[in-house]
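WARN retry 2 of 3 for item q-0093 after timeout on previous attempt; input resubmitted unchanged.
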Amino acid sequence: MSFVGLFRTLLLGPRVTEPAGRLLAGPAAPSAGTAGGQAAGDAAAIRAAGEELQATLRALYGGRSLRIRAVDAGSTNAEELELTALGNAYYDIERFGLSFVASPRHADILMVTGPVTRNLEHALRTTYEAAPQPCIVVAVGDGACDGGIWRGSYAVVGPVDEVIPVHIRIPGDPPSPEEILRGLAGGLAAAGGRLGGGRR
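OK item q-0093 returned
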């Protein structure tokens, strides 16, 4: 195919995208039993979870946004994929007052994933010590909460709370982004303002 033929196919060929009216929920929105209705329900559930978290941040921290540092202590990367999804355009946690940072020195929250392996035990402890105190530690996923299927392995120290103190546990293998938002909101609300409220 020539260069001109390629452009002709791309620009004048058949339409491969859906019209915007079919994608956006409007007056003829699909029923809840269809895939489109489920997507609209998922978006509403995510918005509700985020608003719950936002209300908790407003009550405990005066509306100040919190910074998250994700720490992989030996996970399968399933939890990291879910944490990464929190920052994409669909979940967009920044609209709820949370954002990820690259350094533990700027973090209010450490989200630790995976059971702590012997190779990463020192790195996790060093990261925790580098974070300004008080720092909220969140164990994300079954491995971080209780060791998961790796509990008792020769290569694993154990769950996160055997290395550093844990304030909030979000179980799941892996927990969905919505479960992470709800777990964080519930954990912060249950702990009240004693988890770093007033810093900065």
